[in-house]
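hiii so um. not sure if this is the right channel but i have a protein structure encoded as tokens and i wanna go backwards to a sequence. like what aa goes where. can anyone help
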């Protein structure tokens, strides 16, 4: 869906609000500066990407708009070099849920809004301006943006530096797991792109971490974890059950099979 199509749709007001929110984040973060196009410059293109974030029951939680650079036009060795960026392994996340049951840990969740905008750009990249402003000018990226090949790596490096400088240690088995202990209290963080799981011995240590993260990044506090990476946590006295029923239903609905009857098929 293009920007003009979004603005002409029945959800136009919601998309306009999402676009403005994205632009506010980009501009307040100092992501680029508008300059006259340098001689011989071939800026990468950009486009808007729209998505509806759904709740487990299928209702719309949020309208999201992202301005992304067309990173597929970048040239390796010229516009980018190393691009590797780790995320927490699903095995790590499942193992981390064990002490929640065994030791009564509390688990909360936070999202980093426009996470990739926090990355420190090292290469010189020019991007075509969005649909407003002077035609002759281009955006010189000062910080990372969604789309460039190196954006995930730069975001992870920024997050890693922020936490290690605050006294967090990095888990040797998974570089996206951070922990800190002291005074009989402890906290563990698992990072999956822009989703953060916070495991703590009590609510005070969790709130302390939340306050710290909010001073460094634009955060959304999701409260006690309920759905993790499309996996629903069902807690009871016997432990924690992981379910993806709502995700399966969402996939079926996407392809028009939600009302179909199941049938057996011999192999």
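sure thing!! here u go:
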């Amino acid at each position: 869906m293009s920007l003009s199509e979004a603005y002409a749709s029945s959800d136009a007001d919601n998309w306009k609000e999402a676009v403005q929110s994205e632009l506010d984040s980009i501009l307040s973060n100092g992501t680029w500066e508008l300059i006259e196009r340098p001689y011989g410059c071939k800026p990468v293109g950009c486009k808007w990407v729209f998505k509806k974030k759904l709740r487990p029951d299928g209702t719309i939680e949020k309208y999201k708009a992202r301005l992304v650079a067309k990173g597929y036009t970048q040239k390796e060795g010229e516009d980018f070099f190393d691009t590797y960026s780790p995320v927490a392994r699903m095995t790590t996340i499942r193992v981390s849920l064990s002490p929640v049951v065994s030791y009564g840990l509390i688990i909360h969740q936070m999202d980093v809004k426009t996470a990739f905008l926090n990355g420190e750009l090292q290469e010189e990249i020019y991007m075509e301006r969005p649909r407003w402003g002077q035609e002759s000018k281009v955006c010189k990226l000062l910080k990372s943006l969604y789309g460039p090949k190196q954006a995930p790596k730069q975001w992870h490096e920024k997050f890693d530096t922020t936490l290690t400088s605050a006294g967090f240690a990095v888990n040797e088995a998974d570089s996206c797991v951070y922990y800190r202990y002291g005074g009989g209290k402890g906290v563990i963080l698992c990072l999956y792109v822009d989703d953060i799981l916070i495991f703590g011995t009590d609510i005070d240590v969790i709130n302390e971490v939340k306050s710290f993260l909010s001073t460094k990044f634009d955060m959304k506090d999701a409260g006690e974890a309920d759905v993790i990476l499309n996996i629903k946590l069902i807690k009871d006295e016997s432990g924690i059950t992981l379910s993806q029923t709502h995700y399966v239903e969402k996939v079926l609905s996407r392809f028009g099979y939600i009302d179909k009857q199941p049938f057996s098929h011999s192999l």
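oh and Helices lie at 3-8, 12-28, 90-102, 151-164, 203-216, 245-254.
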